[in-house]
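Aim 2 progress. For HAD family hydrolase, the working sequence is reproduced below.
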Amino acid sequence: MSIKCVLFDLDGTLLDTSMDFTQALKKTCMEFNQPVLNYQHVRNSVSKGGLAMTKLAFPHLEGDALEEKRQRFLQHYLTDIDTHTQLFPGLLKGLQHLADNNIAWGIVTNKPQHLTKQLLQSFNFPSQPKSIVAGDTLSVRKPDPAPMFLAAEQCGVKPEECIYIGDHPRDIEAGINAKMLTGAALFGYLPEEASEKDWPADVFFHTPAEISEFIITKLNIA
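Predicted structure tokens for this construct:
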């Protein structure tokens, strides 16, 4: 193993954004007199994206009517994007190790760039990511490998020298498509229908602390 770089998915892997999404969806439901969903129901859908979460709350809508609700949901989310969001407990030790050893790391997310930029402004990591590739940075997004290739290039490493860690089967597919080592964050926002047997990942992380342990013990330090 010659892993020189760690790439993270954002929501549900690096940052716990679920409560802010839940609150934004709650405000949207209340605005349009729709029943409010419980936290766990929303959490399980965060990694599917804003449209899926909106559809969860407004299952009877489609087309322009659904898009109207999605836009209101995203407006509410942007207003309070960092109220409850935090780094997953247990990851700081690993990020500190990356900083102490000058190891490149990055973020590859399907979250739109303006939301990604706004959210990350609130966080001071031990070292800054060398690459932040958002869902609209390129014309394609995960599971297409192009965002992964761009992140590796910006981090100054070959794709096969990276591990990509995410909490959705799409993330694992993207890593595999880019010939990267893949890690499944099983503590993240797993869809209800997902199970470990469906994930062809190389490594399984049941807690954020296990990611830190992997970073400390397995990465290649020049």
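The CA atoms of residues 117 and 132 lie 9 Å apart. This observation will guide construct design in the next reporting period.
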